[in-house]
TrEMBL record:
Residue stretches making up the Sushi domain: 11-71, 122-184, 185-244
Stored InterPro entries: Compl-Cell_Adhes-Reg (IPR050350), Sushi/SCR/CCP_sf (IPR035976), Sushi_2 (IPR015104), Sushi_SCR_CCP_dom (IPR000436)
SMART domains: CCP
GO CC terms: extracellular region
Keyword Signal among UniProt keywords: yes
Protein name per the record: Beta-2-glycoprotein 1
Species name: Ophiophagus hannah
Keywords, comma-separated and alphabetical: Disulfide bond, Glycoprotein, Heparin-binding, Repeat, Secreted, Signal, Sushi
Any one GO MF annotation of this record: heparin binding
Subcellular location: Secreted
Main location: secreted
């Protein structure tokens, strides 16, 4: 007697369409007719429509999914709940109030009771931008908002200087950390230096980040960087001085200068901060050794070991 296997073909629904910024409560390859799914927005996003629940029909094709998620104040209603737009707005306001109360309680060190099925998304309004300031990496557009812990970066238009932190962060209570200010800064006219000169554009005032360049009359040399910059403190970054060269006080000596041997009579002088090496005779051995000496603003000492 033969054994008959009877196959019954069943109509099923395939995997439901994906919705950006949302998840499905039961996600699998196939669903039998009558089986339901529920879309839920990711934390920080809210439904744009109330149609969250969809049922697999008998003919195996999902109905058109119109569910969408947008960023905003988040109150995630319980699964299968029917929420109207008006009710949703009230729940949003309630969620924001709860978030503010929770932030206040955390600051005071008090415990906060968790609320099931509620996701509080704190939103900060567009921050006021200081006059002559700009937002870097973000462009504020009409209606744009920022969520908790989102950070923005400020910069100031030259010649205005920034005072305060260049970044601000959206806090749990919906406010921003202290915002910077852009202020006008002027520096006094740079002072001349002895044995030197200043190169700069002719102008009535010197403002933040303006620069001037110093130079020395030969044979003097600068002891610092030639460029000086107007800083936010209203002062110049540096004021170099011109240093005198050093004459070599011996004529017959052979010295080491810039890695090569040269007669002192031929070298004659070296610049400020430069170094030469004298050859000194050893008292114990029949040889010589090198001893350095440096030019310091016109003064050069001959090593004691040199004869």
């Amino acid at each position: 007697m033969g054994l008959w296997l009877v196959y019954r073909w069943m109509v099923v629904c395939p995997r439901p369409p994906e919705v950006p910024l949302a998840t499905i409560d039961v996600n699998k390859e196939a669903y039998i007719p009558g089986e339901a799914i529920v879309y839920q927005c990711n934390p920080g996003y809210i439904p744009q429509s109330s149609s969250r629940r969809y049922i697999c029909p008998a003919f195996g094709i999902w109905p058109t999914v119109i569910f969408k998620c947008i960023r905003g104040l988040g109150f995630a209603p319980p699964l299968f709940a029917q929420v109207t737009s008006g009710t949703y707005v009230k729940q949003e306001e309630k969620a924001l109030k709860m978030g503010q109360q929770a932030a206040s309680a955390r600051k005071k060190g008090a415990g906060v009771q968790a609320c099931p099925n509620v996701i509080v998304t704190v939103i900060c309004p567009p921050p006021p931008v200081s006059e002559f300031g700009v937002l870097a990496y973000h462009k504020i557009e009409s209606g744009e908002t920022f969520v908790f812990q989102e950070t923005i970066r400020f910069s100031c238009l030259l010649p205005f200087a920034m005072f305060g932190s260049e970044t601000a962060t959206c806090q749990a209570d919906g406010s921003w950390t202290p915002l910077p200010e852009c202020k006008s800064v002027e520096c006094p006219r740079p002072e001349p230096i002895e044995h030197g000169f200043i190169n700069f554009a002719l102008r009535a005032t010197f403002r933040y980040q303006d620069t001037v360049n110093y130079g020395c009359n030969p044979p003097y040399t600068l002891d610092e960087a030639s460029e000086s910059r107007c800083e936010k403190t209203g002062t110049w970054s540096n004021k170099p001085t011109c240093k005198a060269p050093c004459n070599i006080p011996v004529n017959k000596a052979t010295v080491l200068y810039n890695g090569r041997k040269i007669k002192a009579k031929k070298l004659k002088s070296i610049q400020h901060a430069e170094t030469i090496w004298f050859f000194c005779k050893s008292n114990t051995e029949d040889c010589s050794y090198k001893t350095p000496t440096q030019c310091i603003h016109g003064q050069l000492s001959v090593p004691d070991c040199y004869e």
